[in-house]
Amino acid sequence: AIEIANSSGDKAACYHLGQYFEAHSDPNMAVMFFTKAHACSNALRLAKENNMTDKIANLALMAGGNELVEAAQYYENIPGQTDKA
């Protein structure tokens, strides 16, 4: 399924794989597939829940809108990460 989703780029397949990996406690893979599915809010939520500070800024830029503001607030609350806000 992973190979097919990767090669086809099918958003629905990628979204379902994101859900699968989230349910099976693999947040890195879940974030990757949610991102490929353009489900940026889901990917961003998981990244925040799992302290993936290196991915949050890029995901927020992809999502836009309120997600940018929330990402800035997230970084402001982490010591040493204020410059990313």
TrEMBL record:
A Pfam cross-reference name: TPR_IF140-IFT172
Gene3D superfamilies on file: 1.25.40.470
GO biological process: intraciliary retrograde transport
UniProt keyword annotation of Calcium present: no
Keyword Repeat: yes
Any single GO CC term annotated in Swiss-Prot or TrEMBL for this entry: ciliary basal body
Cell location: Cell projection, Cilium
UniProt-listed InterPro entries: TPR_IF140/IFT172/WDR19
The organism's place on the tree of life at top rank: Eukaryota
Entry keywords, A to Z: Cell projection, Cilium, Repeat, WD repeat
Residue ranges of every copy of the IF140/IFT172/WDR19 TPR domain listed in the record: 1-85
Protein name stated in the entry: IF140/IFT172/WDR19 TPR domain-containing protein
Species name: Wuchereria bancrofti
